Amino acid sequence: MAEPKPWVDMPGLRRMSWRKMGAIGGALALAGVVLGGLLLLGLPVLLIGGLLLLLTSPCTCAVGCCTAPLWIPLLLFVGIPALIFFVTTGGIMLLLTVLAGLTGAAGWWIYRYNRGPMPPGGDAMQRVLDRLRGRSREVTERISKVGQQAASAAS
Q1: How far apart are CA 131 and CA 58, in angstroms?
Q2: FRET label pair with 100: which of 54, 59, 60, 85, CA 20 to 30 Å apart?
Q3: Are 28 and 21 in contact (CB under 8 A)?
Q4: pLDDT tens digit string along 90-149?
Q5: Could you tell me the pTM of the whole model?
Q6: DSSP result, 48-94
């Protein structure tokens, strides 16, 4: 059986420009935010609005004693668990969307730093890396010189 190709070696993905990839990632992130927002906000608005309509309805006010026991079990056993489920699901969806957006932005920055035009802050990163390489080279030379002196003094 043939090994599946890794996604990096797919020719269609390699030919796709980084702008197109960014547009696709942005569209997916926007769709996640919208869906997560609807899950997080839509159900509470629906339940609170329905509850307010139910409480302020003239029919309910007139015969409130008769209708109240009918919707309390429905609210307790269906409404509240559904509210908890949708708020939790919406929160997780928004969190995952934010993480996906941050991952996409980091991937875009790293791609531009390594392959494309220099991203914002790339010059500062290059200066820091050059200073670290220079300092590492100096320390290595100093250690080798001290080691040679210690070896010559020992013999």
Answers
A1: 76
A2: 85
A3: no
A4: 888 888 888 888 888 888 888 888 887 888 888 888 899 899 999 999 999 999 999 898
A5: 0.41
A6: HHHHHHHHH-HHHHHTHHHHHHHHHHHIIIIIHHHHHHHHHHHHHHH
